[in-house]
Amino acid sequence: MQIHHTIASMRAARARAGRVALVPTMGNLHDGHITLMRQAAEHADSVAASIFVNRIQFGPSEDFDRYPRTLAADCEKLAAAGVAHVFAPDEAEMYPQPQRYFVEPAPVHASTLDGEIRPGHFRGVATVVLKLLNIVQPDAALFGKKDYQQLMVLTNMVRELALPVDVIPGETVRAEDGLALSSRNGYLSTAERAEAPRLYRELSALRDELLKPGDHDLLRLETEACGRLPAHGWVPDYITVRRRVDLQPPTQWDEPLVALAAARLGNTRLIDNLEI
Ligand code: PAF
Questions:
Q1: Burial of 250 by CB count in 10 Å (0-12 exposed, 13-18 middle, 19+ buried)?
Q2: How many angstroms separate the alpha carbon of residue 92 from the centre of ligand 1?
Q3: Residues of the chain with CATH 3.40.50.620
Q4: What distance in angstroms lies between residue 168's CA and the mean position of ligand 1's atoms?
Q5: Which of 187, 198, 204, 261 could form a disulfide with 268 if both were Cys (CB 3.0 to 4.6 A apart)?
Q6: Which residues contact 153 (CB under 8 A, 6 or more apart)?
């Protein structure tokens, strides 16, 4: 496995790599990432992973500074998963002068849900992902469904800007108790980790309710699900059902839907979702 710290080195290797699938990450890799790497191998001759903690997608009071940087351990896992290339630039290589050009996602996609709570987040994500796609020039790029809104924004960016890459979604990987794997789970105390699967249980209950035949009072179900969390130490941002295509409120029941949740447990903000 080759590790590239410069754009020039990554590009030179890419030119010799045949069909490439890229898995962009911020490192601190877990089994969810490794599952994406193995899935990527089904779509390409070689798999490339990027590791870059992208300052411009973090808000001023978010966890950029304490986000774990674990490059050596990450590279061991990537090598074991058969990844051929790791692109791991430092900040000066990735943003050599202040980045003054940005990708502005459609407000209808990026100002709802996490975009409303984390202003500028999806602009930062879209900008770095466009830049990574330009550097690596992969044939396919994989993004997990765990970050459902991110996947939706990036799918639309690629389509609307006609980028020559296939976006491939990866299924969320869960611990045995249902908690979606996430780099941020490492912030949880033992007691919080035991409590954390409640978010998934609430989403599952909401989905089960909506799959029952008949009419549903969606607002009541969402409000009740949110309302059950604070007694267990959570500060919910939202539990809501949206249509998958653009994460807007549903207008009819027979369109593909997804239930999404975001809530803080102690100092950790967790998100999860379940397609219905
Ligand atoms: O999902 C992530 O880890 C990041 O948002 C991404 C896509 C690597 C962009 O920094």
A1: middle
A2: 18
A3: 2-170
A4: 14
A5: 187
A6: 105, 109, 110, 122, 125, 126
pTM reported for the whole predicted model: 0.97
User: Could you tell me which of 48, 272, 39 has the C-alpha nearest to residue 169?
Assistant: 39
- How much distance in Å is there from the Cα of 144 to the middle of ligand 1? 10
pLDDT digits (tens, 9 = 90+) for 53-82: 999 999 999 999 999 999 999 999 999 999
Active site residue 216: no
Architecture of the CATH domain 183-275: 2-Layer Sandwich (3.30)
Q: What is the pLDDT of residues 241-258, one digit of tens each?
A: 999 999 999 988 789 999
Task: Give the residue range(s) of CATH 3.30.1300.10 domains in the chain.
Answer: 183-275
Top-level class of domain 2-170: alpha beta
Nearest-angstrom CA–CA distance, 121 and 264: 17
Residue of 50, 99, 128, 154 to test ligand 1 pocket, by largest number of atoms within 8 Å of CB? 128
